[in-house]
Amino acid sequence: MQYSSKVLENAIHEIAKLPGIGRRTALRLALHILRQSPEEMHLLSDAIRVLVDDVMYCKNCHNLSDSDICGICADQTRDRETLCVVEDIRDVMAIEQTGQYKGLYHVLGGLISPMEGIGPGELTIQSLVSKIESGEIKEVIFALSSNMEGDTTTFYIFKRLNNPDLTVSTIARGLAVGDALEYADEITLGRSLQHRVPYENSTR
Amino acid sequence: MQYSSKVLENAIHEIAKLPGIGRRTALRLALHILRQSPEEMHLLSDAIRVLVDDVMYCKNCHNLSDSDICGICADQTRDRETLCVVEDIRDVMAIEQTGQYKGLYHVLGGLISPMEGIGPGELTIQSLVSKIESGEIKEVIFALSSNMEGDTTTFYIFKRLNNPDLTVSTIARGLAVGDALEYADEITLGRSLQHRVPYENSTR
C-alpha cells in the first residue's frame, strides 16, 4: 500500500513488527496516535525507551526488577527455603495473584526447545543449580507449562540437581476448578485419578 | 495486578491506552520489547516520537503529508476539476488502491456526529466550501460511509455548496462484487435496483 507520508510509513513499519499486529492494525494505531495530544504520545514513546534502557533483572531470581535485587527476594518475611521454578515473569505474577505461595522464585527465561534452538545454555539453569548447591533451599517446586518443552526442562534440571536431601515437586495436574468431568481429556483425567487427594485436604 | 518493576508497569500503562489493547496484551508486548535488541526498540520509540512531532497535513486537501502540499495535490497530471470528499486518510489510500480515480481529494477528518459531539466546526468543511467557491472544481464526489453520520455529513455539505454549475455525486451503493443476492439486506438490494446501470456499462 502507498502511504502519503514517509514518517507515517516508517511508524507503521516499526509498529507492525510487534507480535500480533499487522500493517492494517499498525495503520489504525498510527492514526490513533496522531489524534492524541503530542504530550500523551511522548509519554508512550518515552515509556518504551525507558523500558528498554532502564529495566533490570534481579541478580538472585532473574525476575524483572527496578534494582539489583527484586522486591520478592528482598522480602525477609518470605520462606527462603522453598524455591518455585517458572518460565517467565508472567508466571511469577500469576502465582503471586493466587496468594498461596510465600517462598522465592527462579525465572528460567524460557524452556528447553530443540525445535526453536533453545538449549539449557540460553536459560538461567546454571544459576539455579549453583543457588541450590549453596544449600539454603530445602524444596524446589517446578511450575512449568504442561507440554513437551516444560516436561523436558523439568527432567533436565531434576537430573542436574541430584541431591537426596532436596525435596523436588511439580505443581498438581488435574481438572480445573469448575470443569465438567465429561469434557476433560483422558491424560488430565488419568493424572487427576492417579494423584487423588484425601477428601479432608481437598478443599483446603 | 502487581508488577515487579515500576518501569514495566509504566510501559504497560501507556501501551494499554492504545485502542484494542488491554493490559494483558500490553504485558505481552512489553515482554516482547524486552526480548528484542535495544537498537530495534529505539527505532520503535523514535518512530512514534517522529510521527507525533514531524507529520504534516497538506494545506490543500488535509491528507497526511511530509510537506505543505501532498504528492497527490502537487501532481499536475491529475484531473484538477474533480474533487472526492472522504472521511480520513485511510479512505484516500483505499480509493488510490483501486486505480480508478485520477482527481483530487478533500479529507474531512471525521463525520458530523452529534452523539460524539462532532459538529461541522470540528471538520475541514469551511476549507472545502472555500475551495469549491474559488471555482476550479467542476464535480464533487462524496465517498463517505453509508451510515447516519455519513449521510448527515453529505447532506449538510450539499446544502452549503448550493451552486447550480457544480456536478455533485455520491459513490454507488449496491451489492459487493462476489456477493450472493439472497444474503443482501433489503435496503442495499433496493438501492441496487433503483440505481441499475445499462448492461453495456456494467462491466467497465
From TrEMBL, chains A, B:
Listed CDD domains: TOPRIM_recR
Q: Which InterPro entries match?
A: DNA_Rcmb_RecR (IPR000093), Rcmb_RecR (IPR023627), Rcmb_RecR_Znf (IPR015967), TOPRIM_dom (IPR006171), TOPRIM_RecR (IPR034137)
Q: What is this protein called?
A: Recombination protein RecR
Record function comment? May play a role in DNA repair. It seems to be involved in an RecBC-independent recombinational process of DNA repair. It may act with RecF and RecO.
- GO molecular-function annotation terms? DNA binding; zinc ion binding
Gene Ontology biological-process annotations: DNA recombination; DNA repair
Q: Where are the zinc fingers (C4-type)?
A: 58-73
Task: Write the signal peptide boundaries.
Answer: none
Family, similarity comment: Belongs to the RecR family.
The gene designation is recR
Does Transferase count among this protein's keywords? no
Q: Tell me where in this chain the Toprim domain is found.
A: 81-176
Record key words, sorted: DNA damage, DNA recombination, DNA repair, Metal-binding, Zinc, Zinc-finger
